[in-house]
């Protein structure tokens, strides 16, 4: 049995559908704080309401389903985290510790937990940011992910818990919207391009950020989880590079499909300083060398696939 916590989120929505496709619907228990949102994936299967801060509730879910794998995706992202820092720290940190403790108690075989390029900060190398370097994240989300990486490695070393993690770039997908992040512009822009032909971007024109298509992110997750344990030498979290582009470059690519599309830029959005603290590009040679990671979606492929799929929906 696979338990996915945070099943209604941007990653969870896609991961549940893919995992159910691989293992069968009944093998994957989706769970989130609220009742299921019947989204584009329209997949059905076991569902539980879970609150990772409610130890009794969470313990009951582990006891009832005795999962052999757990994907713990529930978190508050960077922008919302700055609006409610203590709530973000509590959910992201205490929630992870509850999941790690119950995974040990119930002898869960593998645990996945998403980290982020947000673990890097203003003094980290900005280009081709390496796996190991100075990390001084200045968002609650970022340092909760950095601390979470330390806890994951600690539980691996101390309790032999097979926990695995990826530092995702900003994720772009069409099946589920992002929730409260700084990279959300790269999803909203597609909806607006189709709906109104215009998008006011909350990041400045030349803000380069590492991004990745959701299909690549999910494939990387499955590849990491399927890799033999001895190939997974990094137990904090693996850099994943994706591709780096600016809002201007993304808009230019969209204009190839929607010639009349216009982008404008609002200024002094608080998310700009978050973006400015993050790397502009990432080095993911450890993921490539240790478990064979290879990216598939470049910018033209992302834009073509997003517009092809969203045209039906918007
Ligand atoms: C965020 N989408 O914007 C997340 C992600 C690298 C960005 O962690 O907060």
From TrEMBL:
InterPro entries: Epimerase_deHydtase, NAD(P)-bd_dom_sf, NAD(P)_epim/dehydratase
Protein's GO biological process: L-threonine catabolic process
Stretches assigned to the NAD-dependent epimerase/dehydratase domain: 2-240
UniProt xrefs under PANTHER family: L-THREONINE 3-DEHYDROGENASE, L-THREONINE 3-DEHYDROGENASE, MITOCHONDRIAL
Xref: Pfam families: Epimerase (PF01370)
Name of the protein: Nucleoside-diphosphate-sugar epimerase
Family in the record: Belongs to the NAD(P)-dependent epimerase/dehydratase family.
Alphabetized GO MF terms: L-threonine 3-dehydrogenase activity
């Amino acid at each position: 049995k696979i338990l996915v916590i945070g099943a209604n989120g941007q990653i969870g929505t896609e991961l549940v559908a893919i995992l159910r496709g691989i293992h069968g619907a009944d093998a994957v228990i989706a769970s989130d704080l609220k009742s299921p949102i019947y989204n584009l994936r329209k997949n059905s299967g076991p569902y539980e309401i879970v609150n990772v801060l409610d130890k009794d509730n969470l313990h009951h879910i582990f006891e009832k389903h005795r999962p052999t794998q757990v994907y713990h995706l529930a978190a508050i992202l960077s922008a919302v985290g700055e609006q409610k820092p203590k709530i973000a720290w509590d959910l992201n940190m205490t929630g992870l510790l509850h999941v790690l403790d119950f995974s040990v108690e119930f002898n869960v075989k593998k645990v996945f937990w998403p980290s982020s390029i947000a673990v890097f900060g203003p003094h980290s190398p900005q280009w081709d940011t390496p796996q190991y370097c100075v990390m001084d994240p200045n968002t609650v989300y970022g340092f909760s992910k950095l601390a979470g990486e330390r806890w994951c490695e600690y539980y691996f070393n101390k309790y032999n818990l097979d926990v695995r993690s990826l530092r995702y770039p900003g994720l772009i997908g069409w099946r589920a919207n992002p929730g409260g992040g700084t990279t959300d512009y790269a999803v909203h822009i597609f909806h607006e391009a189709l709906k109104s032909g215009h998008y006011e971007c909350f990041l400045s024109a030349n803000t380069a950020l590492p991004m990745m298509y959701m299909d690549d992110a999910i494939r990387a997750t499955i590849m990491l989880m399927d890799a033999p344990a001895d190939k997974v030498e990094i137990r904090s979290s693996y850099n994943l590079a994706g591709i780096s582009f600016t809002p201007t470059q993304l808009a230019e690519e969209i204009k190839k499909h929607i010639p009349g599309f216009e982008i404008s830029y609002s200024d002094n959005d608080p998310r700009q300083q978050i973006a400015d603290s993050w790397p502009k590009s990432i080095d993911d040679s450890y993921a490539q060398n240790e478990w064979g990671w290879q990216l598939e979606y470049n910018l033209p492929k992302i834009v073509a696939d997003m517009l092809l799929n969203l045209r039906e929906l918007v």
